[in-house]
């Protein structure tokens, strides 16, 4: 219900740009261009040091300035209509994943139930669905499968070092029963809003492989410049 009220409020109340604060527009043209990198497309990113089992990761934009503000507005403040431009940025990263062998299946990294309840929505799932819709508009037969779940409690990753994040996530995810057949039928692209150390994506890839799926790569909306080997220019 929180998400419904937020969407209704956005229809009747004045809003400012989530990226730069420009009045009377939820996302201005300049901030929208920052999300899609002005046509330059997604870039390959590699956390250093990267965890074992991390698939190739592509990011739509650097996690900084306007992009960071837009992601946080969607995730923490419930600006749900931002899912579409964020999904477009994620779709750009998905297109760069090399896998072949059929239409991609987007598998979002799961959020903890308490986080979803507190926010009133699941931001990664919402962005993944927007990305799949963007891909379908471009002719790709993409779909989203929400088959990953946490099988044990995990600590909040914020503030943890890379080794601590890895230890926090090892063995924390599993594929829901009966989903292995669906995962084996098409290349899987793991999706998330952000990558930092890569620990969560590596654990997600392990869980998918254990269920018989084939992970072609991972795609995220954004990646920070710090602690990431990345070339945007």
UniProtKB/TrEMBL annotation:
MF terms in GO: glycosyltransferase activity
Keyword terms, alphabetized: Glycosyltransferase, Transferase
Highest taxon of the lineage: Bacteria
Residues in Phosphoribosyltransferase domain copies: 184-226
Annotated TM spans: none
Gene3D superfamilies the UniProt entry points to: 3.40.50.2020
Record family assignment: Belongs to the ComF/GntX family.
Protein name in the entry: Phosphoribosyltransferase
Organism annotation: Streptomyces gilvosporeus
Lineage: Bacteria, Bacillati, Actinomycetota, Actinomycetes, Kitasatosporales
């Amino acid at each position: 219900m929180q998400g419904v009220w937020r969407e209704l409020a956005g229809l009747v109340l004045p809003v400012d740009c989530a990226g730069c604060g420009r009045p009377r527009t939820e996302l201005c043209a300049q901030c929208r261009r920052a999300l899609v990198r002005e046509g330059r497309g997604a870039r390959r990113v590699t956390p250093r040091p990267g965890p074992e089992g991390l698939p190739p990761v592509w990011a739509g934009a650097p996690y900084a300035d306007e992009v960071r503000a837009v992601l946080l507005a969607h995730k923490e403040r419930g600006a749900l209509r931002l899912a579409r431009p964020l999904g477009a940025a994620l779709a750009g990263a998905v297109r760069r994943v090399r896998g072949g062998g059929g239409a991609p299946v987007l598998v979002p990294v799961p959020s903890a139930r308490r986080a979803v309840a507190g926010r009133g929505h699941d931001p990664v799932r919402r962005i993944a669905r927007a990305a799949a819709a963007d891909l379908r508009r471009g002719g790709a037969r993409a779909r989203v499968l929400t088959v990953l779940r946490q099988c044990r409690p995990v600590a909040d990753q914020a503030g943890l070092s890379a080794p601590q994040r890895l230890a926090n996530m090892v063995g924390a995810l599993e594929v829901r029963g009966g989903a292995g057949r669906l995962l084996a039928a098409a290349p899987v692209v793991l999706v998330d809003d952000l990558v930092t150390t890569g620990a969560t994506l590596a654990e997600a890839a392990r869980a998918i492989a254990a269920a018989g799926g084939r992970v072609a790569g991972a795609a995220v909306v954004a990646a920070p410049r710090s602690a990431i080997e990345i070339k945007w220019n």
